[in-house]
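Per reviewer request, we include the raw input and output of the structure prediction for the construct analysed in the revised manuscript.
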Amino acid sequence: MKQRMLVVCVAFAAILAACGSGSGSDLDELNVAYFLEWPTPNQYEQDEGTYDAEVGVPVKWTDFATGVEMSAAMASGDIDIAYSQGLVPFVNAVSAGQDLKMVAIAVSYAENDNCVAATALGATRDNAAEVLNGATVSVPVGTVAHYKMLKSMQFLKVDTDSFDIKPLDPAEGAAALQGGEVDMACGWGGGLQRMKEAGNIIMTGAEMETEIGLKVFDVISVTSEFAENHPDVLKKFLEVTENANRDWDTNPDARIPGIVAQSGMDEAATLDSLSTFSFPSTSDQLSDKWFGNDVPVFMNEVADLFVAEGALTEKLDDYGATIDTSFLEDLG
């Protein structure tokens, strides 16, 4: 009887071990990518250690300069979840065959990603086609900023083939614009704010959204393997994030110190950036204006442009297959 009980217990332990692969118990650490100088409501939870407590394992937050770097880190296995990865780097990665899943929208930010032309050029919507011809342009290649630059310049009849592109991240681009090394710089966050000190925006985010139909947002992405092996961890991460966003809606003042502490910006710059952000709710994300229709359609348009520009050699037939809304649906 004792021996039989031992066999049953061993078998039951084996079942628990197999089932436990989705619970996060076999994770020593959760590795999350994020951006500095990109303040978001969940940085309060990051500062308070809420993610660690709710997920059940220590969460290591690693900052990256671009979403392209986040893709590379997920490919190498160094990052489990990319928080606020740009849509364009995600599209480029999955188009190239990387097995990633988009599981949520992190932030929408039409006014916090743009290009700034040097003040001395006197560039406007009306003269951009002439003034910017042959310009030296700093832009993080393969990012949302890159896509917005191409679409807005083409809308203004600027010959983007004439540009001398410098693939600099926003901080580097801001320094290059201030130093007179480039005619125009493109980026986001703190880098964009510093660019504005040395130049002017030609089209606002609202104008691009209304006149060109540019929907600008970042996503939460994971590897398919992580989503399959640790669904409970991922669901809990999304739950904490959603609660953080809704708490921001109702009580923002109490959350500012924690966000400032983690964003790498002072309070004024943090508030300025946050004023340009919106954080769609779970129900909004599941509607047609996001995952129900617009996001996969927009992903296809992004891929079409990058193929036409030669930045992608091929695109996917169905970008909807790279989206997994099941975790949001479980949140209710």
